[in-house]
Write a structure and sequence with these properties.
Layout: H1 6-15, H2 20-34, H3 53-58, E1 64-68, H4 88-96, E2 101-108, E3 114-115, H5 133-139, H6 146-160, E4 167-172, H7 186-199, E5 206-210, H8 213-222, E6 228-232, H9 240-247, E7 251-254, E8 263-267, E9 271-275, H10 279-288, E10 293-297, H11 298-307, H12 311-321, E11 325-331, H13 334-342, E12 347-350, H14 354-358
Parallel strand pairs: 1-2, 1-12, 2-4, 4-5, 5-6, 6-10, 10-11, 11-12
Antiparallel strand pairs: 2-3, 7-8, 8-9
Helix pairs in contact: 1-12, 4-6, 7-8
Amino acid sequence: MVRLQIASWFKILRGARVRKTVLQSILITLVTWFGGPTPAAAQEPGNPRHSTAEDFLSVLVRPVAIGHHGVGPYTTATNPGLPIENTVDSVRQAYTLGARVVEVDVQLTADAKLAVFHNDYLDDFTCIQSLTLDQLQGRLPYVPELLQIINVAREFNNRAQDDLGGILIVELKAVSPHCDPGDNLEQPLVTAAVDEIRRAHFADRAMFDSFSPALLYLAQQAAPEIPRELDLDGLQLLSPAQVQAVTGLPVTVINKKISLGLTWAEIGPIFRLPGYASPAQFLITGLITQVRVVGAEMDFLGAAEQQQPGSGAEFVAAAHSLGMRAFADPANTPADWSFFASLGVDAIYSTIPMGVQLQPAIPEK
């Protein structure tokens, strides 16, 4: 694998540190540019007592376990004894086993509905956006609509009442060049997700996350009351030539419709994402898009610590100094969990029940 230039990244990151008063001025300026205070989310009629995403983001213990695609990113081929990822059964089992927060992925269908599924194409490369929800479920009956997942989360949120529980993270997946060659599906995806969550009166118990700051920018414009998380993959800190060497896929720099001042590229037919010159630029992008959380993958944090011990923890500390929470992904083993926890992250996307068993006790109200 191409050697990541961790030391130079974190030299830049340290140089980007600013005094608190200067940081406050930057934040005030960003709020002026991109919008004012977040409005309160509409409350669900008849249910005034429930925990919220804000409760999750302000919990004092860390790290909190987040059910990754439910109980874990499992498929029938790899784990036949476990529920398939992103299904009602997987999400229900995650909450039942004690997960306070669960994350799922969504994809836009041809009839503007939201299917809960990881990729925006099937194994035969049929694009989900070319199928209606009924057609998709005819091929894969286990694929739920987002509302079904929201209703499961609501059930456990109602049971928890004031205690933390039933919080849902919805990942807005960056649409592949294969399924969105004209770069036209971002706004419809965000609009469908916002509309579904608002119609369900679940905006105060939901979060969005994405590797695409363009999607999160659109989500901020459409629903500033729903907190957002910007994610980072280690590939996004490599040059196009390095990415091509690692993936074996052609890399093409493109003119992105919503670029946010970043350099965007298409990696084969699969990914359309921005690159970052440094972790500092990634964190600045988080400020610009007004996210509450930055998330980092193992292929970034793990490589950082291997090449420069302490640099992963420094990244987390930098996020905290900018007023953002830091999450990590994924923890599939206790060793993964221990590594992420040692960096001081606030939450970890993990398999369940492992994450529940390893997280510290969460105080009840």
